[in-house]
Amino acid sequence: MRLSTIGGAGRLIATCVWVLVAGLGAAHAAEPSLPDFIKSQGVLKVGVKCDYPPSGFLDEKGKFAGIEVEMARRIAEIAFGSPDKAELQCVTSEARIPTLNAKKVDLIIATLGIYPERQKVIDFTTPYCWGASGVIQLKSGAAKSLADFKGKTISVLKGASQAVWLEKNMPEVQTLRLNTVAEALQAMRQGRADGYAGDTSVLFPILSANKDLAILPEQEVFDVAFIGAGLRKNEPEWKAWLDAQLGKLRDEKFYSKVVPTVVSDVMVRDETIKFYESDAPKK
Amino acid sequence: MIDGFDWAYLYDTLPALLRGLRTTLIVSVIAILLSLAIGAIGAVMRLSGRPFLVWPARGYVAFIRNTPLLVQLFFIFYGLPVIGVRLSAFWSGVVCLSIWGGCYHLESFRAGYVGVSQGTRDAARALGLKAWQYALLVALPIALRTAVPSMANTSIAMLKNSSYLQAIGLAELTFVAIDRNSLEFRTIELFAAICIFYLVLVLAMSAGATKLESYLQRPFLAR
Which residues from B are below 8 Å from A when comparing CB atoms? Predict the structure, then answer.
């Protein structure tokens, strides 16, 4: 009311300010907002992997580290102003979805492939990463292609997408299903399995750390898949907000910055950034 | 009933669970038999009074009782191949459970034997029985009466502990539930089902043990 007494110029400025504020407000409304149930918690509870470098692992001090861990921290920073507001919890492959659905965490960023069996029980954000499955074997191994594993044994993780894919598409392959990557590799080294099938994003770091292992040729990758963050069903507001943030992370080349902090090997680093910031091959 | 409990799913999964149950039973039965043999031999060593027999038996019991079963299992499955002994998941499981159960059986046997009263021993000697006659014909039957309840207990624990074998990829009952759950996410259905399977098995074993106890309690002539 006081503005109107100042005169014409004042009124003009007031109008401009009003238009500007309203305009910002409208822009703000178009941007999804953080749902109340997350806001009221004051922290972001995220399930991440603890044995899956470089995605999620424990560093030499036993602290959470990895690309997905940094994603969780960055999202917590966007939501609550500090990366420390991410409350992280270790989840294994088999425990990921039960942990989410038991409401122990509100989000899982844990190399979770998007596929229909899972979409029945949880929702996914838009993919933040793509990948394919591949098989590694000892350098002394005889296989030249995936087909060479017919009648042989491949170790996989319980609950991993490779277990399902092999069962459906190559029933002649025996699978040895174990709980951790370390166990699966050990089983292969001890001749209990002829190969280890996993996500290529995980296989490359394994290869650079284990000089006795080799991956099958690139055209032998199978089951191209997309990885998204998992959230419980029927939380559309939460999904919209997360989708917006994940888009932002890709636009700001977040992964080009984060990946080199956890991946020292140049070959692995470039392969890894590709999975996050390029589009998947059309196959 | 629990909201959303899917009976149809359970029905579809039953064949897989039953295959798991079969593996659980086979592993457990072989392991229990082997563990009884280990326990018996170990008890004889432990009671022999000869240091070169007593000390290995004592060391074995101390080692197995004071380390976690899962650690022992990983040691057998992943550790032994380093020294050239590569057992399959099945036999790693059998060996691990037998060694674990054997040490408890050993202690049960020993406790039963030591519990036979000095008076009985004196009486046997007074009747002119030789040491082996006393041990086999007098002490053993009495010792078994004391030992059977705790041996049954150990055997039941072995059956339940066979669920640890899922960790080395042996497709026993718990493995089937965990594997299925990680693909199909029917946590309540699967774990409720295997709980009931285990419960029924253990109740059956308990009933068997009770029967055996009452049989052993009867005097010889009434048997």
Answer: 78, 81, 86, 89, 167-169, 175, 178-179, 181-185, 187
What integer pLDDT is reported at residue A52 of this predicted model?
Answer: 87
**Could you read off the pLDDT of B189-213 as tens digits, one per residue?**
999 999 999 999 999 999 999 999 9
Nearest C-alpha of chain B: how many angstroms from A215? 23
Res A21: pLDDT: 53
Rounded to the nearest angstrom, the minimum Cα separation between A183 and chain B is 8
Asked if A163's CB is within 8 angstroms of B86's CB, the reply is no
Q: Specify if A282 maps to a domain.
A: no
Of B81, B179, B185, nearest to A190 by CB-CB distance is B81
**Residue A230 phi, psi (nearest 5):** -100, 140
The domain made up of B7-222 has a fold known as: MetI-like fold (1.10.3720)
DSSP state letters, B3-59: TT--HHHHHHHHHHHHHHHHHHHHHHHHHHHHHHHHHHHHHHHHHS--HHHHHHHHH
How many Cβ pairs within 8 Å bridge chains A and B?
45
What b/e sequence results for A180-207 when a residue is b if at least 16 CB atoms lie within 10 Å of its CB, and e otherwise?
bbebbbbbbbeebbbbbbbbbbbbbbbb
Query: Which range of residues forms the domain containing residue A114?
Result: 36-128+228-277
pLDDT at A72 over 70: yes
User: Is residue A18 in some structural domain?
Assistant: no
Sort out which chain A residues have CB atoms less than 8 A from B9's CB and list them. Answer: none
Give the model confidence (pLDDT) of A195-206 as tens digits: 999 988 788 888
In terms of domains, do A123 and A234 share one? yes
Look at residue A265 and tell me whether its pLDDT is greater than 90: no
Contact A159 B183 (CB under 8 A): yes
